[in-house]
Amino acid sequence: MEVRQLRYFVAVAEIGHFGRAAESLHIVQPAVSKQIAALERELGLTLFDRSRRQIRLTADGEAFLPHARRALRGIDRAAKAAADLAAGGTGTLRVGSARGLGRRLEDILAAFRGTHPGVTVELATTSSVPDKLAAVASGDLDAAFVSAPPRSTPGVAAHHLWDEPLLLAVPARRAVTAADLATLADLPLALAARDEDPGTHDLITDACRAAGFTPRPGPTLTHAQDILAGPIAAGRCWALLPTSAVRADSAAVSFVEPDPPILVPTALAVPHPTRRALTTALLAAAKTSA
């Protein structure tokens, strides 16, 4: 049974004439007659009484008509839903997030929801950039915000959004001279594990080497507030944190802009080629809000 056969049947049943039904369908009458005859053969039913000048439904045709209409309504709803999904009107968008995006993420999602109110955004927060890129490539994520992505990842396109300045988080007594990284060479550096965020890790260690020293290993940086309130406040280490992740200076911790600045590129990673219109819409919102 074909969809067109159902459409032809319903049109003839409602209009009561093969020729006028064919005109309304913008096809020739023989095509309508042929497809309805094929439908009758497949169903094993006679749907129309053709013995009179005015075409009428048989009892079987009358009984079948509401089922045909119901089937066509379902097909039309399915087609509309598919079109909405393709156009980004409805559905679910799975996005890899990250700590420290702060207000930027809120603004991007607000812009996206403003144009796509019917879409549900599911955020998956992880600090591992390689894991997020792998999830985008495999289709487990529709997009992901990543810091300092590699130049190329198979199956992924990383679109640059902004450069995030890093601030020095140092014990307050070191604040006066801290802008010069070389003055921190004697103090251990709290740094995230390289396999979590290799690009940012390398940017920071390269900045230290450019200042003339190799940083002493300190605590592994996981949660910024824990590092700030603990070892940095106690004077045992320092760290470089995104501006969006810091709070106001306390009596024990100061935030200082390094000289020269250290900027971490932030990108939205999406599948390449892009599989969904929703992903393209999120990228547009991110670029507009960045």
- Give a short account of the largest sheet: 7 strands, mixed
Structural class: alpha/beta
The helix content, as a percent range, equals: 40-55%
Number of strands: 11
Tally of structural domains: 3
Oligomer: single chain
Helix and strand string, N-terminal first?
HHHEEHEHEHEEEHEHEEEH
Secondary structure tally, helices? 9
The CATH H-level homologous superfamily of the largest domain: Periplasmic binding protein-like II
Percentage of β-strand residues: 15-25%
Question: What is the residue-averaged pLDDT?
Answer: 92
Note the overall shape.
rod-shaped
Q: Any guess at the CATH architecture of the largest domain?
A: 3-Layer(aba) Sandwich
Question: Nearest-angstrom radius of gyration?
Answer: 32 Å
What is the CATH level 1 assignment of the largest domain? Alpha Beta
Distance between the termini: 52 Å
CATH-defined topology of the largest domain: D-Maltodextrin-Binding Protein, domain 2
Low-confidence stretches: none
Describe this structure in words.
One of its GO terms (cellular component) is protein-DNA complex. One of its GO terms (molecular function) is DNA binding. Keywords: DNA-binding, Transcription, Transcription regulation. This is LysR family transcriptional regulator. Belongs to the LysR transcriptional regulatory family. The protein is α/β, with parallel strands linked by helices. The chain has three domains: about 5-85, Winged helix-like DNA-binding domain superfamily/Winged helix DNA-binding domain (Arc Repressor Mutant, subunit A, Orthogonal Bundle); about 90-160 and about 265-290, D-Maltodextrin-Binding Protein, domain 2; about 165-265, 3-Layer(aba) Sandwich (D-Maltodextrin-Binding Protein, domain 2). Helices cover about 40% and strands about 20% of the residues. It has nine helices and eleven strands. It has helices spanning about 5-15, 20-25, 30-45, 60-85, 105-115, 130-140, 200-210, 225-230, 275-290; strands at about 50, 55, 90-95, 120-125, 145, 155-170, 190, 215-220, 240, 255, 265-270. The strands form three sheets. Strands 3, 4, 5, 6, 9, 10 and 11 form a seven-stranded mixed beta sheet that branches. It is rod-shaped and about 105 Å long. The mean pLDDT is about 90.
